[in-house]
Amino acid sequence: MTVAAGERNDLPTAGEWDALREIMEVETGMDLAEPRFGRLKNAVLRVAGQRNFARLLEQPAEKVKFLEQLTTELTVGESFFLRNEYHFQALREEVLPRILTENAQRQDVRVWSAGCATGEEPYSLAILLDQLLCERPGWRYSILGTDLNVRFLERAREGFYRPWSFRRTRVHDDIRFFQKKGDGYQLHERVRKQVRFAYLNLVKDVFPSFLTGTVGLDLILFRNVAIYLKAEVTAAILQRFCQALRPGGWLLLGETEINLAPTAGFSVYRCANSTFLKKLDDGSPQAFAPTPIAISTPVMADVGQWISDFTFAVPKIPQWVPLPYVERTAAASSGLNTLAVLPPEPRFQQALQEGDFAAAVRGLLSFDDVSARSVARLLLVRKLLDHAQCAFAREQLQLCLKENPLLLEAHLLQASLSEEEGKTERAVEAYRRALYLDRNCCIAHFHLALLQRATGDYDGAGKSYQTVLKLCDSQDGHAIVEFGDGVCYGRLRELAVTLFGEEAV
Asked: Residues 38-89: pLDDT tens digits?
């Protein structure tokens, strides 16, 4: 097509295409250079049509929506039940029995399916655990499934699947788990309630985090995701998975990914036709030296400025601002400088550091000041959760709240634990108590909105999200959200718009 004199050709330039590729590589961690650049072009065509995407990026509201839609198009939803029979055979016969033996005292199993797509993987794990635990009364298990594709998560929560999702198994014929419905199969509510789905971008969002339940995990599955990512991104994610696992926790990658994965902080455990990474018992990050590619906490926030340092080795991208690395400790991750307000108490601090929790409880008696004791007890709760001692943590958290019912962070933690247990009403009450103590607690409004929407209270959810946006807009986008485990206001606002759609703006 010939452009008339004085008429501007609005087709994207080569430079604009390169800039978009760089943005999406930071947004998703994917490697979109040739020969994968064609995937990006096809995705842009499906989302923007004949519109010039460069114009969309110039409009803040359109930009967030466009990038979210583009991310959705780039993500792969290829999944099916019991995918890779060798992995599930190893889980059934070796790894999960070892986890059950290791957890015999606490009788609890916590699993994370990272990059869960439409839910087949976490539900396969739920079915497997249901089978293994059916003759073990008193045991509990919880599974977290996360993805950065909002549409996939919506489908996963429905728990309805058509025959193509069962192309390597006949598990849908088992009436203990599925019921025939129309042209597909509906997963029973008994199994569905064991899996909690949540949006989480492994490149941009904060983890491990007490608020999202990504701490003290027994097993993480991260299969067939790393093959799409840059090597340095994968290395950084695995480093943070190591921090999210309890000492001795397990990590399973895809068949073609395990040979290329860095193993710092892990030992290699080989089964027949499957290989797992097992976190060293002496923990992480102490088990290995952090590498320069470690993801910052928080990672990035789109706050309209350009700063030159970047988390990953990608070209500099205007408008994306990395934030300083925050060493994740029980205190630093909380938003409350708990160590600073505690008087020195060597017995308690030594016991906490050594993981001698019974001695740490005895050490609490050395705190004469009730306020200081409650803060110290909250540190103990966080340490217990890091070690997957959930029942003990809940017990200590209740004592903490009795000692100091005005400790806002304790109410937030109670809400998170209640949500993980499926006790939605109790979680809502805990968030409301936190807001009674501080009506401007942005992170409480955010999580309350998610629960309100999940329970059908759309009016309440809309009001809560509007409050989140107002609070975020009143702060510097670089600033850390109090009690947010390291997330910044700019990223929290992005999440609100991404998860709540047009009603959030």
From this structure: 889 999 988 888 778 888 888 877 887 888 888 888 887 778 999 999 999 9
Closest listed residue to residue 180, CA positions, set 160, 157, 156: 160
E-assigned strands of 178-288? 178-181, 184-187, 195-199, 217-222, 245-253, 266-271, 274-279
Please compute the mean of the pLDDT values over residues 469-489 and round it to a whole number: 92
At 124, the amino acid letter reads S
pLDDT at residue 338 above 60? Answer: no
Helix H, strand E, coil C: the string for 250-265 is EEEECCCCHHHCCCCC
Tokens found for residue 41 = 């072009």
Q: Is 497 helix (H, G, I), strand (E, B) or coil?
A: helix
Q: What is the pLDDT of residues 365-374, one digit of tens each?
A: 888 899 999 9
Q: What is the rounded distance in angstroms from the CA atom of residue 207 to the CA atom of residue 244?
A: 7
- Residue 271: partners with Cβ closer than 8 Å, 6 or more residues away: 90, 94, 95
| CA nearest to 322, candidates 303, 349, 344, 339 | 303
